[in-house]
């Protein structure tokens, strides 16, 4: 058996963590042969609740789970970690945009960047889930200069999963028959869910472009995009709480593919530092189509963008630049 790895989940007493921890502890992400120590970080007033989560993890009787460390001290939470799920942050309520959380949440990611810098392994892979995720991840990396920027990412996998599910549902095929769906830009209502390169294995076993299989460009350019862009708000309106089960599944999917490699012949969407690819602003955390192999991601190059797509990419770029400037100002206060 391999040596245990150390994995931290912040916001460990919250909603998303409640679904995520089970997936981690049973081997869904790092593999069924990879034992792990789980570091559970939350704030002091939540330590009682967190203790209940620790009891439940113990009661799950999972053989891969070697140790559980509940704590409110970031120095303990981030000590020697190999992977970090930064979930702990305020969720939005009905009527808010995710960027309305920026002032409240970004300082958490400044402090956690500093703590990661001091205490985590330099090889740690960091996934930011807490909103506004792209900009929080940028700030976290900025305050962790000893860790390579490529080790930071933000989650748009939930948007990818939503887009794939919308297409699969419309075509009446299982979701994994749909490939190469891309989410560009910000995890916000300006994101661009793009199926121009997506393929589907149809019910009779034929591989087709999604555009041909759907045969309704007005839907693809209209309701499909807005449904994915506004899905988080729709869940909040229905549940009075933001998505948690699906967010946890997406966080597990994101880290699993980063750690083990993305599916052969397809790609996944991750927000990573832009290098200017596709004329996006270098230095912001931008969601791209990526391929992962041996723990590294690489932006898929050479995709054609028509005028419609170009406009969408530019719009979400503009929002990310505005968020970056606001976040930097908040962090200087
Ligand atoms: N990127 C994405 O696709 C998604 C992001 N989210 C975001 O994830 C975040 C968490 O959502 P939920 O789990 O539903 O919220 P929640 O309110 O149920 O849990 C958040 C937890 O974080 C803790 N926390 C607050 N400050 C902390 C700190 N400094 N250190 C450690 N823990 C801290 C809180 O005490 C609480 O236990 C929200 O910002 C939400 O908007 C939610 C869904 C999808
Ligand atoms: O909508 C929210 O605030 C939570 C979230 O990020 C999502 O469900 O995509």
UniProtKB/TrEMBL annotation:
Substrate binds at residues 92, 98, 131, 162. The active site is at 187 (proton acceptor). GO terms for cellular component: cytosol. Residues 6-152 form the Lactate/malate dehydrogenase N-terminal domain. NAD(+) binds at residues 42, 105, 129-131. Belongs to the LDH/MDH superfamily. MDH type 2 family. This is Malate dehydrogenase. The lineage of its organism: Eukaryota, Metazoa, Ecdysozoa, Arthropoda, Crustacea.
């Amino acid at each position: 058996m391999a040596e245990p790895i150390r994995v931290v989940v912040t916001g460990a007493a919250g909603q998303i963590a409640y679904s995520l921890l089970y997936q981690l502890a049973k081997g869904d992400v790092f593999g069924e042969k990879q034992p792990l120590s789980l570091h559970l970080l939350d704030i002091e007033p939540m330590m009682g609740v967190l203790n209940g989560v620790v009891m439940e993890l113990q009661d799950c009787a999972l053989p891969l789970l070697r140790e559980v460390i509940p704590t409110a001290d970031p120095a303990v939470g981030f000590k020697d970690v190999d992977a970090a799920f930064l979930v702990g942050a305020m969720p939005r309520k009905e009527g808010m945009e995710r960027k309305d959380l920026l002032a409240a949440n970004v300082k958490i990611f400044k402090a956690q960047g500093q703590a990661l810098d001091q205490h985590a392994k330099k090889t740690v892979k960091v996934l930011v889930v807490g909103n506004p995720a792209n900009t929080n991840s940028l700030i976290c990396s900025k305050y962790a200069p000893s860790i390579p920027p490529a080790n930071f990412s933000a989650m748009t996998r939930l948007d990818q999963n939503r887009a794939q599910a919308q297409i699969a549902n419309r075509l009446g095929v299982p979701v994994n028959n749909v490939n190469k769906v891309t989410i560009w830009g910000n995890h916000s209502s300006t994101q661009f869910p793009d199926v121009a390169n997506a393929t589907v294995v149809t019910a009779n076993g034929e591989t087709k472009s999604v555009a041909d299989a759907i045969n309704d460009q007005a839907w693809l350019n209209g309701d499909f995009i807005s449904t994915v862009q506004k899905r988080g708000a729709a869940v909040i309106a229905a549940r009075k709480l933001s998505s948690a089960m699906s967010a946890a599944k997406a966080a597990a999917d994101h880290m699993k593919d980063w750690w083990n490699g993305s599916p052969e012949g397809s790609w996944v969407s991750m927000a990573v530092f832009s290098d200017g690819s596709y004329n996006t602003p270098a230095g912001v955390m931008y969601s791209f189509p990526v391929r992962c192999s041996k723990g590294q991601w690489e932006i898929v190059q050479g995709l054609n963008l028509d005028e419609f797509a170009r406009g969408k990419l530019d719009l979400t770029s503009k929002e990310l630049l505005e968020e970056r400037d606001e976040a930097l100002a908040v962090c200087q206060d």
